[in-house]
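cron nightly-structures :: item 1 of 1
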Amino acid sequence: MQVPYLLEPVGLCRTDNDVYVELLDAPSSSPSDLLKRLELPEETIRASLTSLCGAGLVHLLSAASDSYVAVPPEVAVPLLIQRQRSALARLQHRVDEMAESARRMAAAGDTCVEMLDGPDAVIAALSRLQGEARLEVCMVDAPPYLGGGPSRNDAELARLADGVSYRAIYHPDSLASAGAVEHMRECMKNGEQARVHSSAGPKLAIIDGRAAVIIANDRDPDPTRRILLGPSALLDVVIQHFELLWDKATPFDDVVHEGIGPRDRELLRLLASGMKDRAIARTLGVTERTVGRRVTELMERLDADTRFKAGVQAAQRNWI
């Protein structure tokens, strides 16, 4: 799996990331210093410095010397991650409000909203819409399920073969069984793009950006009651919600299922706090060599070539 640039999960662009990493390696640098090392236009570097200052990752050390210093990642990055989570929670709240509005509109007979009541109605609508898809189907796969558990979506395999793109965000609970994981891998082998997010929800499917099926009440979810949305402001909000989740979700790999034990979780917390191997070893009651070996193994599982990258990846997966 290709590791994304470090600050992608917190909404910063690749250039911002490169400038920040360079400042970590060479504190107290001016834009002209960065210009020599990064070979980027000066206006681009200054724009990135402005973004990084706004995000709390960089401070202007001296206006007179035009020099900047990076805030340590163990201080700045967790705050940015929390900010992203808060934004996601606010959007989820908005989606819930819009879903309630959709239910009222459906009761009033609005043509852009249709209530799907009962498993037969839900299955028929999802089958029809997938069959009509021409470009892309986007899904959030999360409990609860019709029939009590995940089931195969053979319609997806057929549409993938027809050239329709699929993007799917899975809640970890939706991949709790070997059968669910096996089917997801089969879909991925045939072209599905799959990601995992610990807060994935509500359950939904978006077809070609023109229609969506979403669970009727995410606070008290009933898989047999869903809302079919046509072109509308409500559909726009659902699409926005999916794209934000997609940006924050982690590309699927075996690490998601294998997880980590409490010992490794504590090690990662201590590592993220800035403690050195010797101090971590004393805290955990093991040798420094054991700590170093285990950190190396965790970095390999996270596909990270630095400890900083490992910390970002671990936080993104909600390991710490």
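cron nightly-structures :: done
The mean pLDDT is 81.
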